[in-house]
Amino acid sequence: CRAPRSLRALPLRKPGLKNQPTTPIPTMEDGHELDLTYITERVIAVSFPASSSEESYLHNLQDVTRMLKSKHGDNYLVLNLSEKRYDLTKLNPKTMDVGWPDLHAPPLDKMCTICKAQESWLNSDPQHVVVIHCRGGKGRIGVVISSYMHFTNVSASADQALDRFAMKKFYDDKVSALMQPSQKRYV
């Protein structure tokens, strides 16, 4: 059974300090800096709290990028759901900015674009993974995961049933309670 797995800690670099030892970053589950969850083996959710400083966010994002590159090479596509545009292409050229305002549902054409991009990327190579990124607003991640679950249920093969189960578990356990009623109705 493939259930979502959360990364418990990543090395943390304090802004402005060089050649320092690294310390673990607790996940948001522990009330701290980030939450990185392998929803399936090929779909990863990464969220950062909106309250973290810009400098801390960028340094922690660099650490996440290093981890993704070491584990997946250049085989990952980042879907940036953040309302504010961050130039994530400096860290990974395969980044799509597809954000919308927090606490709102996205336009339907945007959601179709996101689902088709995920499907296309994942189907193009068995080593490809999708990283769904958002700074603040786990509800947006929930909308994308839920929409992709429905999309793959319509267009996917039977062998993806376990992935759909893992996505459903992630949705129920981590993001459903954080979504706005309009976001739930949208899905």
TrEMBL record:
Pfam families in the record: PTP-SAK
Source domain of life: Eukaryota
Record domain Tyrosine specific protein phosphatases: where: 130-186
Signal peptide as annotated in the record: none
Residue span of region Disordered: 11-30
GO cellular component terms given for this protein: focal adhesion
GO MF assignments: phosphatase activity
Record domain Phosphatase tensin-type: where: 25-187
Keywords: Hydrolase
UniProt name for this protein: Tensin 3
